[in-house]
Amino acid sequence: MNSKSTAALNLYHQWFGDRARSACGKTAVINKPAATHCAGCGATGRLHSANSKEDSHSFCDVCVTVAGSYEGIKNPGRMGAGWAAIITPENAILSTGNEENMGAFKKLPNTQVFNNTVQKTLIQCILSPPEPPLILVAFGNSSPKVCRQLRVSYSKDLLYISGDSIDRIDAGIVRRSVSAINDADVPQKRLASATSSVLTIARGVASEQALERAKKTIIDAEDKHPGITDIIRSMPLADSLEHRWIMACAYAK
Amino acid sequence: MSQAIPLLIEAVLESPVIISPEAYLTLDSLLSASCQLFNEDDSDLPLQKHDDVYHASAGILVGNPIQLEAPFVSRMTLRDYGDQRILPNKHGKRGDSKLVVKLNAFPHMARVDRYPVHHYPKIIWFAKGNPGKTHELVSRLTGVGKRCNSGYGQLGTISVMPMPIDYSLKLPDETPARPIPVSLCKQVGIDDKASCLDRVTYKPNYFDFELNATLCAIPTTRRISEDQLMQVKEVV
């Protein structure tokens, strides 16, 4: 675990975890003595089981606030797959795909729980993020991984999505591109085919026939949506994370 | 330091480069690595300094890349086995199985790492310093980016060109050219409120996050087109 994650984990604990654990947490169970290290950060000392099961991972006082169980959350009792959180020093916005979990954290002030999918919550945060600093988490199946892979975003234009993996998104570019696509009202399929044609021509490593086809696709797209080539050129590389989020945000239903 | 002039360093990339978005490939980090490769003192790089910050931009990739993927097969190392999360010789439950490794396979257990790779024609840096010494130190590098010792990011012809304007801290598009601590932004004419901010390292050694990291305005212009490079050169 690197020091970037340690700093983020401590901020999560300070802004949200400590309060949440004391207001809504289940009683911690001291794990069996065989566990010597926290499964999240690797710390030694007092360890708790994430829930009452004997064979669960053990977590330290800090990591248990990320990975531990909370009253009101149904099986498996903790924030796992289907949960997303936007944590700032002032407030917390949580979302869950399961309506039965909505009652969790109701005792915690400045905390809202919504019934929403992870993808939609992330899209909302990318398009209109709260004032930084913030921690954006898409919880996954592995709670130790979430503890190890937390990141703090210090800018609205650069967002980290923590969770099973750490995604670093240039949110400023995503917002600008989404706004340009919405203004031009380009259908998803046409944008995708025009993007691949622009790439084919830019690389220049294709047969003459393929290059001709690509040129024709762009001419057709330009006829229907003037300025589409400029939009594509201003977008990030087609294999980048930002490109994926642009498509997700622009065509979210 | 004598002869500190604004520079444009241009290097041809002879092989695809593996570059993570969090690695800025600042020129000072490369010069420092070049010194350390030859057991030389890296405390006095041939670059001008503003407080703790070298006048050395992040690497800017030029042109349209060809995108590839590089799979690396490597052996599990002792360090992998020392990881607390790996449970040797234990049959995993559903969901845990990825972390279970049989120790009797050691040291022949294979691990595959996949990297996105980009083949750009060129990489450039802006700097302010001694052109001769800077050229010498850059020329000694085997390559740039991840896995450069395995043939990725190899540098070909390197040229150092004097520039009339110093773009090593602020690029012509007014964005930061390198990570600049927020406390220094005003002094170098960067609007920190309009910039992307992140807690990153800003001086060598760049891997030492504990010691050398602070909240910085980070560079956002990481690649430019050949035409944009020509425009910059036309200023000369």
Mean pLDDT of chain A: 87
Low-confidence runs of chain A: none
DSSP E strands of chain A, number: 9
Biggest β-sheet of chain A, characterized? Answer: 6 strands, mixed
- Assembly level: heterodimer
Instruction: Please compute the radius of gyration of chain A using only Cα atoms.
Output: 22 Å
As for the number of domains of chain A, it is 2
Strand order of the largest sheet of chain A: 6-5-4-7-8-9
**Could you tell me how far the N terminus lies from the C terminus of chain B, measured between alpha carbons in angstroms?**
24 Å
Strand content of chain B: 25-35%
What structural category do the secondary elements of chain A indicate? alpha+beta
Secondary structure blueprint with pairings:
The complex is a heterodimer of chains A (253) and B (236).
Chain A: H1 3-24, E1 29-30, E2 48-49, E3 58-59, H2 64-67, E4 83-87, E5 92-96, E6 111-115, H3 118-127, E7 135-138, H4 143-148, E8 158-163, E9 167-170, H5 171-184, H6 188-203, H7 208-224, H8 228-234, H9 241-250
Parallel strand pairs in A: 5-6, 7-8
Antiparallel strand pairs in A: 1-2, 2-3, 4-5, 4-7, 8-9
Helix pairs in contact in A: 5-9, 6-7, 6-8
Chain B: E1 5-13, H1 27-37, E2 49-50, E3 53-54, E4 60-62, E5 66-75, H2 78-81, E6 87-88, E7 100-101, E8 110-119, E9 122-129, H3 131-139, E10 155-162, E11 180-181, H4 182-185, E12 197-201, H5 209-212, E13 213-217, E14 223-224, H6 226-234
Parallel strand pairs in B: 4-14, 6-7
Antiparallel strand pairs in B: 1-9, 1-10, 2-3, 4-9, 5-8, 11-13, 12-13
